[in-house]
Amino acid sequence: MKRVFLIVLDSVGIGEMPDAASYHDAGSNTLKAASRGKNFHMEHMKELGLFNIDGIDWMEGAEQPKGAFARMAEASRGKDTTIGHWEIAGVISGEPLPTYPDGFPDEVIQAFIKETGRGVLCNRPYSGTEVIKEYGEEHMKTGDLIVYTSADSVFQIAAHEEIVPVEELYAICEKARAILRGRHGVGRVIARPFTGKPGSFARTANRHDFSLEPPKTTMLNALKDAGLTVAGVGKINDIFAGSGITQTVRTKGNEEGIALTVEHMKKEFEGLCFVNLVDYDMLYGHRNDVEGYAGALTYFDERLPELLALLKEEDVLMITADHGCDPSTPSTDHSREYTPLVMYGKKVKEGCNLGTRKTFADIAKTITEYFGVSADIAGEALPVWK
Q: Which domains does the chain have, with CATH numbers?
Protein backbone atom coordinates (compact mmCIF):
# COMPACT_ATOMS: atom_id res chain seq x y z
CA MET A 1 0.00 0.00 0.00
CA LYS A 2 1.68 3.20 -1.21
CA ARG A 3 1.58 6.42 0.82
CA VAL A 4 3.30 9.75 0.24
CA PHE A 5 3.72 12.31 3.02
CA LEU A 6 4.41 15.70 1.46
CA ILE A 7 5.37 18.32 4.05
CA VAL A 8 5.67 21.99 3.13
CA LEU A 9 7.86 23.98 5.51
CA ASP A 10 6.08 27.24 4.71
CA SER A 11 8.55 29.90 3.49
CA VAL A 12 11.80 27.96 4.03
CA GLY A 13 13.60 29.23 0.93
CA ILE A 14 17.25 28.39 0.31
CA GLY A 15 18.58 31.36 -1.66
CA GLU A 16 17.63 34.00 -4.20
CA MET A 17 16.50 32.96 -7.65
CA PRO A 18 18.11 34.64 -10.69
CA ASP A 19 15.14 37.00 -11.05
CA ALA A 20 14.97 37.89 -7.34
CA ALA A 21 15.99 41.51 -7.93
CA SER A 22 12.88 42.13 -10.03
CA TYR A 23 10.86 41.10 -6.98
CA HIS A 24 12.97 43.36 -4.71
CA ASP A 25 14.48 40.27 -3.08
CA ALA A 26 18.14 40.38 -4.09
CA GLY A 27 20.29 38.69 -1.44
CA SER A 28 17.44 36.84 0.28
CA ASN A 29 18.24 33.45 1.76
CA THR A 30 15.80 32.30 4.42
CA LEU A 31 17.51 29.09 5.54
CA LYS A 32 20.92 30.77 5.71
CA ALA A 33 19.48 33.58 7.83
CA ALA A 34 17.79 31.13 10.20
CA SER A 35 20.96 29.05 10.47
CA ARG A 36 22.59 32.01 12.22
CA GLY A 37 20.21 31.54 15.14
CA LYS A 38 21.86 30.59 18.41
CA ASN A 39 19.93 27.35 18.85
CA PHE A 40 19.77 26.26 15.21
CA HIS A 41 20.54 22.65 14.41
CA MET A 42 19.11 20.32 11.78
CA GLU A 43 21.26 17.23 12.08
CA HIS A 44 18.55 14.82 10.95
CA MET A 45 17.71 16.88 7.87
CA LYS A 46 21.44 17.06 7.22
CA GLU A 47 21.61 13.26 7.25
CA LEU A 48 18.88 13.13 4.61
CA GLY A 49 20.79 15.53 2.35
CA LEU A 50 19.44 19.03 3.02
CA PHE A 51 22.85 20.67 3.11
CA ASN A 52 24.04 18.75 0.03
CA ILE A 53 21.57 20.63 -2.16
CA ASP A 54 23.07 22.78 -4.94
CA GLY A 55 23.90 26.28 -3.74
CA ILE A 56 23.96 25.50 -0.01
CA ASP A 57 27.57 26.31 0.78
CA TRP A 58 27.27 27.81 4.27
CA MET A 59 26.69 24.48 6.01
CA GLU A 60 28.59 21.21 5.74
CA GLY A 61 26.69 18.48 3.92
CA ALA A 62 26.47 14.81 4.87
CA GLU A 63 29.24 12.52 3.59
CA GLN A 64 26.69 9.86 2.68
CA PRO A 65 23.19 11.36 2.50
CA LYS A 66 20.39 8.90 3.19
CA GLY A 67 17.87 10.57 0.90
CA ALA A 68 17.46 12.19 -2.50
CA PHE A 69 17.56 15.96 -2.74
CA ALA A 70 17.11 18.85 -5.18
CA ARG A 71 16.99 22.61 -5.48
CA MET A 72 13.59 23.65 -6.81
CA ALA A 73 13.08 26.74 -8.99
CA GLU A 74 9.68 28.39 -9.22
CA ALA A 75 8.47 28.63 -12.80
CA SER A 76 5.36 30.61 -11.90
CA ARG A 77 5.34 34.38 -11.72
CA GLY A 78 4.95 35.01 -8.03
CA LYS A 79 6.24 34.31 -4.57
CA ASP A 80 3.14 33.68 -2.51
CA THR A 81 1.59 30.71 -0.76
CA THR A 82 -1.19 30.10 -3.27
CA ILE A 83 0.97 30.22 -6.40
CA GLY A 84 3.70 28.14 -4.70
CA HIS A 85 1.35 25.37 -3.57
CA TRP A 86 -0.45 25.30 -6.90
CA GLU A 87 2.89 24.76 -8.63
CA ILE A 88 3.87 22.03 -6.17
CA ALA A 89 0.59 20.39 -7.23
CA GLY A 90 1.37 20.73 -10.95
CA VAL A 91 -0.06 24.09 -12.04
CA ILE A 92 2.32 26.77 -13.33
CA SER A 93 0.87 30.29 -13.19
CA GLY A 94 1.90 32.47 -16.12
CA GLU A 95 0.59 35.67 -14.59
CA PRO A 96 0.96 36.91 -11.02
CA LEU A 97 -2.16 37.29 -8.93
CA PRO A 98 -3.19 40.96 -8.42
CA THR A 99 -1.70 42.97 -5.58
CA TYR A 100 -2.77 46.33 -4.17
CA PRO A 101 0.14 48.44 -2.87
CA ASP A 102 -2.17 51.48 -2.64
CA GLY A 103 -5.15 49.64 -1.18
CA PHE A 104 -8.21 48.27 -2.93
CA PRO A 105 -10.07 50.44 -5.46
CA ASP A 106 -13.32 52.14 -4.52
CA GLU A 107 -15.37 49.77 -6.68
CA VAL A 108 -14.22 46.82 -4.55
CA ILE A 109 -14.66 48.58 -1.21
CA GLN A 110 -18.11 49.94 -2.03
CA ALA A 111 -19.30 46.52 -3.18
CA PHE A 112 -17.93 45.03 0.04
CA ILE A 113 -19.70 47.65 2.20
CA LYS A 114 -22.97 47.04 0.34
CA GLU A 115 -22.75 43.26 0.82
CA THR A 116 -21.73 43.31 4.48
CA GLY A 117 -23.57 46.36 5.77
CA ARG A 118 -20.43 47.43 7.63
CA GLY A 119 -17.94 50.23 7.08
CA VAL A 120 -14.25 49.77 6.30
CA LEU A 121 -11.16 50.91 8.19
CA CYS A 122 -7.56 51.13 6.90
CA ASN A 123 -7.62 49.70 3.33
CA ARG A 124 -3.84 49.79 3.00
CA PRO A 125 -0.92 47.36 3.12
CA TYR A 126 -0.21 46.78 6.79
CA SER A 127 1.39 44.46 9.30
CA GLY A 128 -1.28 42.23 10.78
CA THR A 129 -0.20 42.88 14.35
CA GLU A 130 0.21 46.63 13.83
CA VAL A 131 -3.12 47.11 12.07
CA ILE A 132 -5.11 45.87 15.05
CA LYS A 133 -3.05 48.08 17.37
CA GLU A 134 -3.91 51.13 15.30
CA TYR A 135 -7.49 50.40 14.27
CA GLY A 136 -8.71 47.87 16.84
CA GLU A 137 -10.25 50.36 19.27
CA GLU A 138 -12.10 52.24 16.51
CA HIS A 139 -13.35 48.92 15.14
CA MET A 140 -14.74 48.01 18.56
CA LYS A 141 -16.55 51.35 18.83
CA THR A 142 -18.00 51.42 15.32
CA GLY A 143 -18.23 47.80 14.18
CA ASP A 144 -16.44 48.78 10.97
CA LEU A 145 -14.21 46.05 9.56
CA ILE A 146 -10.44 46.37 9.35
CA VAL A 147 -9.52 45.62 5.73
CA TYR A 148 -5.87 45.47 4.76
CA THR A 149 -3.47 43.80 2.38
CA SER A 150 0.26 43.13 2.00
CA ALA A 151 2.77 42.60 -0.78
CA ASP A 152 0.94 39.32 -1.42
CA SER A 153 -2.32 38.87 -3.30
CA VAL A 154 -4.55 38.97 -0.21
CA PHE A 155 -7.68 40.73 1.06
CA GLN A 156 -7.49 40.46 4.84
CA ILE A 157 -10.33 41.24 7.24
CA ALA A 158 -9.57 41.70 10.92
CA ALA A 159 -12.37 41.77 13.50
CA HIS A 160 -12.63 41.37 17.26
CA GLU A 161 -14.35 38.11 18.18
CA GLU A 162 -16.67 39.91 20.63
CA ILE A 163 -17.76 42.42 17.98
CA VAL A 164 -17.95 40.06 15.01
CA PRO A 165 -18.25 36.38 16.02
CA VAL A 166 -15.93 34.07 14.13
CA GLU A 167 -18.65 32.37 12.09
CA GLU A 168 -20.01 35.77 11.05
CA LEU A 169 -16.52 36.85 10.01
CA TYR A 170 -16.20 33.71 7.90
CA ALA A 171 -19.54 34.53 6.21
CA ILE A 172 -18.26 38.05 5.51
CA CYS A 173 -15.13 36.58 3.94
CA GLU A 174 -17.27 34.40 1.69
CA LYS A 175 -19.07 37.54 0.49
CA ALA A 176 -15.71 39.18 -0.18
CA ARG A 177 -14.55 36.08 -2.05
CA ALA A 178 -17.59 36.33 -4.33
CA ILE A 179 -16.73 39.98 -5.08
CA LEU A 180 -13.02 39.37 -5.67
CA ARG A 181 -13.14 37.55 -8.99
CA GLY A 182 -11.83 38.28 -12.46
CA ARG A 183 -9.31 41.11 -12.58
CA HIS A 184 -9.64 41.58 -8.81
CA GLY A 185 -9.29 37.85 -8.14
CA VAL A 186 -6.83 37.91 -5.27
CA GLY A 187 -5.29 34.62 -4.26
CA ARG A 188 -6.78 34.60 -0.78
CA VAL A 189 -9.38 36.35 1.33
CA ILE A 190 -8.23 35.85 4.92
CA ALA A 191 -10.25 36.06 8.13
CA ARG A 192 -8.05 37.55 10.87
CA PRO A 193 -9.99 37.42 14.18
CA PHE A 194 -8.47 38.91 17.31
CA THR A 195 -9.29 39.36 20.99
CA GLY A 196 -8.20 41.51 23.92
CA LYS A 197 -8.49 45.15 24.90
CA PRO A 198 -6.93 48.33 23.48
CA GLY A 199 -3.22 48.15 24.08
CA SER A 200 -3.23 44.36 24.35
CA PHE A 201 -4.95 42.99 21.26
CA ALA A 202 -3.83 39.57 20.04
CA ARG A 203 -4.71 37.57 16.93
CA THR A 204 -6.31 34.19 17.58
CA ALA A 205 -5.80 30.81 15.97
CA ASN A 206 -9.16 31.09 14.19
CA ARG A 207 -7.62 32.44 11.01
CA HIS A 208 -9.24 31.00 7.88
CA ASP A 209 -8.23 31.40 4.24
CA PHE A 210 -10.74 31.55 1.38
CA SER A 211 -8.75 30.84 -1.79
CA LEU A 212 -9.44 30.84 -5.49
CA GLU A 213 -9.82 27.38 -6.95
CA PRO A 214 -6.76 26.36 -9.02
CA PRO A 215 -7.31 27.29 -12.69
CA LYS A 216 -6.39 23.80 -13.91
CA THR A 217 -6.44 20.17 -12.83
CA THR A 218 -3.92 19.49 -10.07
CA MET A 219 -2.16 16.44 -8.74
CA LEU A 220 -4.80 16.39 -5.99
CA ASN A 221 -7.67 16.09 -8.48
CA ALA A 222 -5.88 13.31 -10.36
CA LEU A 223 -5.24 11.29 -7.20
CA LYS A 224 -8.77 11.77 -5.90
CA ASP A 225 -10.27 10.80 -9.27
CA ALA A 226 -8.16 7.62 -9.15
CA GLY A 227 -9.84 6.66 -5.89
CA LEU A 228 -6.89 7.50 -3.64
CA THR A 229 -6.96 9.37 -0.34
CA VAL A 230 -5.89 13.02 -0.44
CA ALA A 231 -5.62 14.22 3.15
CA GLY A 232 -4.88 17.88 3.86
CA VAL A 233 -3.26 18.89 7.15
CA GLY A 234 -3.11 22.57 8.09
CA LYS A 235 -4.21 25.13 5.50
CA ILE A 236 -3.94 22.80 2.48
CA ASN A 237 -7.71 22.60 2.10
CA ASP A 238 -7.95 26.40 2.23
CA ILE A 239 -5.20 26.92 -0.35
CA PHE A 240 -6.90 24.64 -2.87
CA ALA A 241 -10.46 25.76 -1.97
CA GLY A 242 -11.18 22.11 -1.17
CA SER A 243 -10.56 20.99 -4.74
CA GLY A 244 -9.14 17.47 -4.88
CA ILE A 245 -9.20 16.98 -1.10
CA THR A 246 -10.91 13.91 0.38
CA GLN A 247 -10.33 14.69 4.05
CA THR A 248 -8.98 17.67 5.94
CA VAL A 249 -8.00 18.88 9.37
CA ARG A 250 -6.92 22.39 10.36
CA THR A 251 -4.11 23.12 12.79
CA LYS A 252 -3.20 25.88 15.20
CA GLY A 253 0.53 25.71 14.60
CA ASN A 254 3.50 23.53 13.74
CA GLU A 255 3.38 21.42 16.87
CA GLU A 256 -0.20 20.35 16.19
CA GLY A 257 0.56 19.95 12.47
CA ILE A 258 3.38 17.51 13.19
CA ALA A 259 1.27 15.64 15.75
CA LEU A 260 -1.56 15.23 13.24
CA THR A 261 0.89 14.05 10.61
CA VAL A 262 2.05 11.38 13.06
CA GLU A 263 -1.59 10.35 13.52
CA HIS A 264 -2.06 10.02 9.76
CA MET A 265 1.10 7.91 9.52
CA LYS A 266 -0.44 5.46 11.97
CA LYS A 267 -3.58 5.08 9.83
CA GLU A 268 -4.18 2.63 7.02
CA PHE A 269 -4.78 4.41 3.71
CA GLU A 270 -3.42 4.61 0.20
CA GLY A 271 -2.65 8.01 -1.23
CA LEU A 272 -1.25 11.39 -0.26
CA CYS A 273 -1.03 13.23 3.07
CA PHE A 274 -0.27 16.87 2.18
CA VAL A 275 0.90 18.97 5.15
CA ASN A 276 1.55 22.69 5.57
CA LEU A 277 3.52 23.88 8.60
CA VAL A 278 2.81 27.60 8.67
CA ASP A 279 4.63 28.95 11.73
CA TYR A 280 7.91 29.64 9.90
CA ASP A 281 6.14 32.15 7.69
CA MET A 282 3.36 33.50 9.88
CA LEU A 283 5.14 33.81 13.21
CA TYR A 284 8.79 34.32 12.30
CA GLY A 285 9.44 35.26 8.66
CA HIS A 286 6.92 38.09 8.49
CA ARG A 287 8.06 39.36 11.89
CA ASN A 288 11.78 39.24 11.07
CA ASP A 289 12.40 36.94 14.02
CA VAL A 290 15.61 35.06 13.21
CA GLU A 291 15.83 33.30 16.56
CA GLY A 292 12.19 32.21 16.44
CA TYR A 293 12.66 30.90 12.91
CA ALA A 294 15.75 28.97 13.94
CA GLY A 295 13.96 27.47 16.91
CA ALA A 296 11.02 26.34 14.78
CA LEU A 297 13.32 24.60 12.30
CA THR A 298 15.18 22.94 15.15
CA TYR A 299 11.87 21.71 16.60
CA PHE A 300 10.90 20.12 13.28
CA ASP A 301 14.29 18.44 13.05
CA GLU A 302 13.92 17.06 16.56
CA ARG A 303 10.55 15.53 15.63
CA LEU A 304 11.79 14.15 12.30
CA PRO A 305 13.06 10.78 13.69
CA GLU A 306 9.53 10.10 14.92
CA LEU A 307 8.19 10.55 11.38
CA LEU A 308 10.96 8.45 9.83
CA ALA A 309 10.31 5.60 12.26
CA LEU A 310 6.68 5.37 11.13
CA LEU A 311 7.45 5.02 7.42
CA LYS A 312 6.38 1.67 5.96
CA GLU A 313 7.88 -0.33 3.10
CA GLU A 314 6.23 1.65 0.30
CA ASP A 315 5.98 5.02 2.06
CA VAL A 316 7.75 8.13 0.76
CA LEU A 317 8.49 11.28 2.74
CA MET A 318 8.95 14.52 0.77
CA ILE A 319 9.92 17.79 2.50
CA THR A 320 9.86 21.07 0.56
CA ALA A 321 8.76 24.73 0.73
CA ASP A 322 6.58 27.12 -1.25
CA HIS A 323 8.64 30.37 -1.30
CA GLY A 324 11.01 32.26 0.98
CA CYS A 325 10.48 34.82 3.77
CA ASP A 326 13.95 35.87 4.89
CA PRO A 327 13.72 37.04 8.53
CA SER A 328 17.00 38.97 8.32
CA THR A 329 16.20 41.45 5.53
CA PRO A 330 14.44 44.80 6.04
CA SER A 331 11.42 43.44 4.16
CA THR A 332 8.75 41.56 6.10
CA ASP A 333 7.27 40.08 2.92
CA HIS A 334 7.82 36.80 1.07
CA SER A 335 11.01 36.47 -0.96
CA ARG A 336 11.63 35.00 -4.41
CA GLU A 337 13.86 32.03 -3.60
CA TYR A 338 14.72 28.50 -4.59
CA THR A 339 13.19 25.90 -2.29
CA PRO A 340 14.57 22.60 -1.00
CA LEU A 341 13.31 19.14 -1.76
CA VAL A 342 14.40 16.22 0.40
CA MET A 343 12.98 12.73 -0.25
CA TYR A 344 13.33 9.59 1.82
CA GLY A 345 11.91 6.07 1.80
CA LYS A 346 12.90 2.50 1.14
CA LYS A 347 11.98 2.97 -2.53
CA VAL A 348 14.08 6.15 -2.88
CA LYS A 349 17.70 6.14 -4.03
CA GLU A 350 20.15 7.16 -1.33
CA GLY A 351 22.51 10.07 -1.92
CA CYS A 352 20.77 11.04 -5.17
CA ASN A 353 21.50 14.67 -6.11
CA LEU A 354 18.76 15.70 -8.51
CA GLY A 355 20.37 19.07 -9.20
CA THR A 356 18.39 22.23 -9.80
CA ARG A 357 14.90 21.60 -11.15
CA LYS A 358 13.04 23.96 -13.47
CA THR A 359 9.76 23.86 -11.58
CA PHE A 360 8.16 22.88 -8.28
CA ALA A 361 5.75 20.86 -10.44
CA ASP A 362 8.32 18.06 -10.69
CA ILE A 363 7.07 17.10 -7.23
CA ALA A 364 3.53 16.58 -8.52
CA LYS A 365 4.67 14.60 -11.54
CA THR A 366 6.85 12.38 -9.34
CA ILE A 367 3.98 11.64 -6.97
CA THR A 368 1.44 10.83 -9.68
CA GLU A 369 4.00 8.59 -11.40
CA TYR A 370 4.64 6.76 -8.13
CA PHE A 371 0.94 5.95 -7.84
CA GLY A 372 0.68 5.04 -11.52
CA VAL A 373 -1.86 7.82 -12.09
CA SER A 374 -2.05 9.62 -15.43
CA ALA A 375 -2.35 13.38 -14.89
CA ASP A 376 -2.48 16.36 -17.24
CA ILE A 377 -0.19 18.50 -15.10
CA ALA A 378 3.12 20.32 -15.51
CA GLY A 379 6.47 18.95 -14.41
CA GLU A 380 8.84 16.09 -15.04
CA ALA A 381 9.04 13.01 -12.85
CA LEU A 382 12.24 12.80 -10.83
CA PRO A 383 14.51 9.76 -11.39
CA VAL A 384 14.58 8.75 -7.75
CA TRP A 385 13.21 5.25 -7.57
CA LYS A 386 15.39 2.24 -6.85
A: 3-95+212-370 (3.40.720.10), 106-210 (3.30.70.1250)
